[in-house]
Each structure stands twice: as structure tokens, then as C-alpha cells.
Design brief:
By secondary structure, this protein is of the alpha/beta class. The protein has one domain (8-272): Thiamin diphosphate (ThDP)-binding fold, Pyr/PP domains (Rossmann fold), CATH 3.40.50. Helix content is 32%, strand content 16%. The chain has an eight-stranded mixed β-sheet, sandwiched between helices. The protein starts with 24 loop residues before the first helix and ends with a helix.
Length: 275
Amino acid sequence: MNAVTYSAKDFKTEVKPVWCPGCGDYAVLSSITKAFADLGLAPHQTSVVSGIGCSSRIPAYTNTYGFHSIHGRALAVGQGLKLARPDLTVLVAGGDGDGFSIGGNHFMHACRRNVDLTYVVMDNRVYGMTKGQPSPTTEADWDASAMAPPGGTGMTPFHPLAIALAAGANFVARCFSGDPNGTAEVIAEAIKHPGFSFVAVMSPCITFREEQREWKNMVRPAGVEATTDAAQAARRLMTDDGMNMGVLYRGNRVSYGKEKKATASFADLEAEFAI
């Protein structure tokens, strides 16, 4: 715990967000900064890493160490940072396009690798920054946008939580941006939980998907407690309608790097590469 107490406001910069009015990412930003403050962290103890997209602007809006990386590679940067600086709290932020399309391979292997960081994905089931194309999580029959194929893509949507669980994520949760306090609580728990923690946040894009305004009437708290049994969590995931909010799974895997200690010094490593 720090001698100085920081509030959520201390984790925000003076940079004004440029998201569209009504975007759910405003609330997610508030949830992240509230989680940092509630955990008693200090700005210099935290880092926010992102890729490309609307939600990936978050490092500019947070008063922490930040890294706005390239498209789909935020998890690679975040894992490298955490392994190099295990004293830092590392949170990686992104969206459904950045995280599950070009970044999909990194996502699966980050779950498998289980580095101790938290991945918050704001999922609006559309490419917002590039004006409304279907994303990996878009419903197969969505064709409301001029950018979408007539009748929809016809492809089964990517199921991020199921993929995260199957690939080995140590903490899996789903939240709704319309409940910023509840989302902050889950993000704080995810940060505290060892290993790779995945928090999927349903974050409406009412500019390109106005029908998502109805999410606030559809979401509900999950009727069951989180489980430590991956098989049970998988059964729940494959039978729910995607509107159950809360922590689904808490695993007990040892974080990557914790079970192994480096035995070579920097001098030893330099000697290996000497010409």
C-alpha cells in the first residue's frame, strides 16, 4: 500500500477522449481508473498497453506508463513488459477487432502462456474506427450497415470467453459498460488474480449499432457463482445467451515465470553472443 492515497481522477490525464457520444468506452475508462485507485496503486506502479482501434486510445487518457502499440500486437508488448518489469501492474486494453482478428493468435497464446497481466477487451461487435464493418464477434446475420455483406457474413461469431477458457486463461469474466462500478470491481479482482486474466466488456457502439442501446435491458447478473472447474465453466459458457455478467472462472495455474528462476547473469548472456 502506498503512503499517498490516489483517487481515480489521479489516473486520468488532461487529454479529452474523442470517442463518439454514447460510446461505452467512456465508462470502461472510468472503471479502469477506479480499479487502480481501489487497489491502492500509484500511477508509477501501473502500465496500460493497447493496440489499434477506438478502445486502444486508452493509454493516452490514463496517467500511467503507457504504450500504444501496433494493430493486434498489444498482448505481445504487454507480456514482454510484465516479464521485464514484474513489479509493474500491467493492463492491456483493446477491442474485438484488434484482439480477436489480427490479434487472435496472440490472444490464444497469451491465455496459454499465462503471464500475470489483465486483458480488458471492449467488445461492440463492430469495427467502429473504420466506420462499421463486421468484426469477429459480429452476429452472422447482421447486415444493418452499408459496410456489411447483404444478409450478413454468414460466419459463426468468435466466442472470446470460450476460447480464453479452452486456451488456459486463469481468470475469465464478462461485464457491461453500463455498470461501471461493477466493471471496476471485476477489473480489480482480475488484477489481483495471478496469471492471465481476461475481462470481456460489452461496450455499445451506438453510432454504428444503435440497437445495442437495448443491451442495458438484456444484461443480468450471472445466477451462479464463479467456478474453479474449467469443465463446468465451459458447460455454462456454451449454454448461456451471452448476457450473464460477472466472474465465470477463477483458475489456480502458476503464472508464467513464477515457476522458473533465471540462472544466468547478464554477463553470461552477453558472453553467449560475443563475436
